[in-house]
Amino acid sequence: MDTTAQARIVIEGLAFAEAPRWHDGALWFSDFYTHKVHRIGADGKLETVAEVPGQPSGLGWLPDGRMLVVSMTDRRLLRQDSDGLKALADLGAYAHSHCNDMVVDRHGRAYVGNFGFDMMHKEPVRSTVLMLVEPDGKTCVVADDLLFPNGCVITPDGATLIVAETFGKRLTAFDIADDGSLSDRRVWADLGEASPDGICLDAEGAVWVASPPTAEFLRVREGGAICDRIGVNGQAIACALGDADRRTLYMVVGRVSKAERALAERKGRIEAIRVDVPGAGFP
């Protein structure tokens, strides 16, 4: 079912938006090529909350409320303290290309993905790792042989992590141990022609998937059954379930391109549509 006509535009004119999050009564997101993290509160006004020279991507929060943000090109995880952004972890020893999206669990542990190859210069696709960063900055690899680990979600009980493998065209699940390590890797959903980018989880255990090449947001159940489909005009980049009842699906739309083109065209936007099932889990 295509419900594009019911969507409203939240904001447009963005360079390349990513990592939408509903947090503390507001919609937060990164805009890659302007190097800014923004929030939109209840008044609808856009506020810049951080500037990240290394290009911001994934967002999350520690239990004490401090924001974490992935700095893509210099491959670091940053923490926003009262006096500004500070490096929490250097990920360069594990990630050999741009870092990307992440999810932060209730303990403040961050699972961070990366490209694995130079996508913008059309290097051959290579598998890569998923990293775990502890609140104190200690970092380790918790999964390998992933094809562009991108958006991630954690179930409400904290027991399962689902990661979007963009070039694997699948969602892959792991069990999460008490120490944050991962086990029992399995294919959660084979997506066929869809390539998952950003994802979010709902209270029925289904995952909303943004698929850039097919220009749609898909609601997918474990096993791969698609139970909702929302087409958009542009590439579907990422999504989040938010508002007080977590029943608004925020959909990031844009075009994957280099910085110069993205800044000139400003095709990025965020749309919103009401859905039946509220969001759940992390982020």
Structure description:
With 283 residues, this protein is mainly β. It has 1 helix and 24 strands. The radius of gyration is 17 Å and the shape is globular.
Query: Which fold name fills CATH's third level, the topology?
Result: Neuraminidase
Per DSSP E runs of 2 or more residues, the count of β-strands stands at: 24
The separation of the N and C termini measures: 26 Å
Give me the Rg, rounded: 17 Å
The level-1 CATH class:
Mainly Beta
Average pLDDT, rounded to a whole number, is 95
Low-confidence stretches: 1-5
* The CATH architecture: 6 Propeller
**Helix fraction bin:** under 10%
The rough form would be described as globular
Tell me what portion of residues adopts beta-strand conformation: over 45%
Structural class: mainly beta
What attributes characterize this protein structure?
mainly beta; single chain; four-stranded antiparallel sheet; 283 residues; globular; Neuraminidase
Short description:
With 283 residues, the chain is mainly beta. Helices cover 2% and strands 53% of the residues. Strand 19 and strand 20 (216-220) form a beta hairpin.
Give the topology.
Blueprint: E1 8-14, E2 17-23, E3 26-31, E4 36-40, E5 46-51, E6 56-61, E7 67-71, E8 76-81, E9 84-90, E10 99-104, E11 110-114, E12 128-133, E13 139-146, E14 149-154, E15 160-165, E16 170-176, E17 182-190, E18 199-201, E19 207-211, E20 216-220, E21 226-231, E22 235-242, E23 248-254, H1 259-265, E24 268-274
Antiparallel strand pairs: 1-24, 2-3, 3-4, 4-5, 6-7, 7-8, 8-9, 10-11, 11-12, 12-13, 14-15, 15-16, 16-17, 18-19, 19-20, 20-21, 22-23, 23-24
